[in-house]
UniProtKB/TrEMBL annotation:
Keywords: Iron, Lyase, Manganese. Catalyzes the dehydration of D-mannonate. The gene is uxuA. Belongs to the mannonate dehydratase family. The lineage of its organism: Bacteria, Bacillati, Bacillota, Bacilli, Bacillales. It comes from Amphibacillus xylanus (strain ATCC 51415 / DSM 6626 / JCM 7361 / LMG 17667 / NBRC 15112 / Ep01). This is Mannonate dehydratase.
Length: 355
């Protein structure tokens, strides 16, 4: 499997060449964050992005994310224009060697946490989700908390410009059901998967984070049944999944090892996010180090099935803690992600030797 790191381009506090210094890292996962969702990505920006990575000796073959405009999720007549832009962006990306596009189909909020820097016992801090601090409050309050907690770092999915229209967005989603949202996803997939095929790109939908309804908004990428329904809806290899052990792992009912086994054996998961989360008895969770026993995720079990299935796709260590005094974008410090990367590769190396 190919190990990558998420890189935030010119907004990243980590100098690009540092990723190359993590043993085993072959590439970065990039994105363009200054173009609003729904707009066509300018070729010049894509070219610059890929060239910068390549100049640092890193591949850039995965994009995370090309965000889907809310009008597509809402199924409004204006969606066709945004889908045409999406197709055009796919063609541009393919021209510069992109092989996988990660995206999500969550209404309004891209991901949700109650705390971006919860102190842990060891003196580090990590992202956390407490139900009472999210599910009972005014969404505007949550937006304020997230933006304040981001310490000035751009937070993809939480763009202030877009969230300024939050009241209108909530009105538009009034009455939206899971069934209708799913139909809108299928409409989108039926349009873009043929383009993906022609571009040699695999689309990889990311699970909802957290994988349950928040603020009454529908969620359709929560569990094995949802994942299966999505890949069957347009049953082509280009219609793939990003399996994220943290997002899916936020619900203890999800059997992560079985899910990773099933979809990598089918070759329908071109991209993986691996991290660990720890649950408490109230159903809250926070993020922890990647090492297996620090959290609730069976990290070793996941790596074993990936090895068994001879996984050849891309993966990246997902959110880590902030350790050793590092300051930066919550979840995306270098140090703990590098520890996680080494830990996981260590497991892989032993499995390889035993084969
Ligand atoms: Mn993820």
């Amino acid at each position: 499997m190919k190990m990558t790191f998420r890189w935030y381009g010119r907004d990243d506090h980590i100098p690009l060449p540092y990723f190359k210094q993590v043993p085993g890292a072959t590439g970065v996962v990039g994105g363009i964050f200054h173009i609003p969702a729904g707009e066509d990505w300018p070729e010049e920006d894509v070219k610059n992005l890929v060239e910068q990575a390549n100049a640092a000796g890193l591949e850039l073959e995965v994009i995370e994310s090309v965000n889907v405009h809310d009008d597509i999720k809402l199924g409004l007549p204006s969606r066709d224009r945004y889908i045409e832009n999406y197709k055009s962006t796919m063609r541009t990306l393919s021209k510069y060697g992109i092989k996988v596009i990660c995206y999500n189909f969550m209404p309004i909020f891209d991901w949700t946490r109650s705390d971006l820097a919860m102190p842990l016992e060891d003196g580090s801090n990590a992202l956390a989700y407490e139900r009472d601090k999210v599910e009972g409050i005014d969404p505007n309050e949550l937006i304020k908390n997230i933006l304040e907690g981001s310490k000035g770092h751009a937070m993809p999915g939480w763009e202030p410009e877009r969230l300024a229209g939050i009241k209108k967005l909530f009105e538009q989603y009034e009455g939206m059901t899971e069934e209708r949202l799913f139909d809108n996803l299928v409409y989108f997939l039926e349009q873009i998967i043929p383009v993906a095929k022609e571009c040699n790109i695999r689309m990889a939908i990311h699970p909802d984070d957290p994988p349950w309804s928040v603020f009454g908004l529908p969620r359709i990428v929560k569990n094995d049944a949802d994942l299966e329904r999505i890949i069957k809806a347009v049953d082509e290899p280009e219609n793939g999944l990003t399996l994220c052990s943290g997002s899916l792992g936020a619900n203890l009912d999800n059997d992560l090892v079985a899910i990773f086994d099933k979809y990598t054996a089918m070759d329908r998961a071109p991209f993986l996010h691996i991290r660990n989360v720890k649950h408490n008895e109230k159903g809250d969770f926070h993020e922890v180090a990647h090492k297996d026993e620090t959290g609730s995720v069976d990290v070793k079990g996941i790596i074993k099935v990936l090895h068994k299935n001879n996984y050849k796709g891309y993966w990246r260590p997902d959110h880590g803690r902030m350790i050793w005094g590092e300051e930066g974008r919550p979840g995306y410090g270098l140090y703990d992600r590098a520890l996680g990367a080494s830990y996981i590769q260590g497991i892989w190396d032993i499995l390889e030797e035993e084969r």
